[in-house]
Amino acid sequence: MNKKQLRAKYKALRSDLSDTQIEDLSIDIANQLLKLPIWEKSFYHVFLSIDQHKEINTEYILNILQGKDKNVIISKSNFEDNTLAHFLLLDTTVLKKNEWGIPEPVDGIEIQEDKIEVVFVPLLAFDTKGNRVGYGKGFYDKFLAKCGSETLKIGLSFFEAEAEIKDVNDIDIRLDFCITPLKTVRFNPL
């Protein structure tokens, strides 16, 4: 399938999930993450869930990171050029939902992409080669292209891999891992 078809398919599959299923699956994904050998890093980027899109609840991952005393980075979207600015999440960080329902920091300490060691990547679908389908605006591909070559890119998905995304292009950034409720899929060795 191509990206457009996959977006439609996985938006429909997500819309069928109950709130209880989302919570249970999100906990399962967080538990799968604990098995990865990634916890010696210092700077972790996490997306904040958009409730109306029935995204994975990343609060469980935030709790793990805060419990391990890691630096947590969150983003603020610029819809004029489809880029992200990244800020350190502190106890004093004020979050506000933007007009698209994305929780974002009002302000804070900005962190450059090359400092980020692990990125938990939102997605709608992924394939067996580590390609992903997002919402189609390119925010994360632009962001990941600016990260260091050693930055781990970890997708989070309620669903298992598709065989192939047909219309992958040169600007698409592949994942190193994708975490589902049932398993961890590795695309690149550590």
Protein architecture, described:
There is one protein chain. This protein has 190 residues and is α/β, with parallel strands linked by helices. The chain has a single domain, classed as Rossmann fold (3-Layer(aba) Sandwich). It is 24% helix and 22% strand. It is built from four helices and eleven strands; from the N terminus they run ααβαβββββββαβββ. It has helices spanning 3-15, 19-33, 59-67, 139-146; strands at 43-45, 71-78, 83-88, 95-97, 103-105, 118-121, 125-126, 132-133, 152-156, 177-179, 184-186. The strands form three sheets. A seven-stranded mixed β-sheet has the order 3-2-1-6-9-10-11, sandwiched between helices. It has a two-stranded antiparallel ribbon with strand order 4-5. The chain has a two-stranded antiparallel sheet with strand order 7-8. Strand 7 and strand 8 form a beta hairpin. The longest helix has 15 residues, at 19-33. The chain is globular and about 45 Å long. The model has no long low-confidence stretch (mean pLDDT 95).
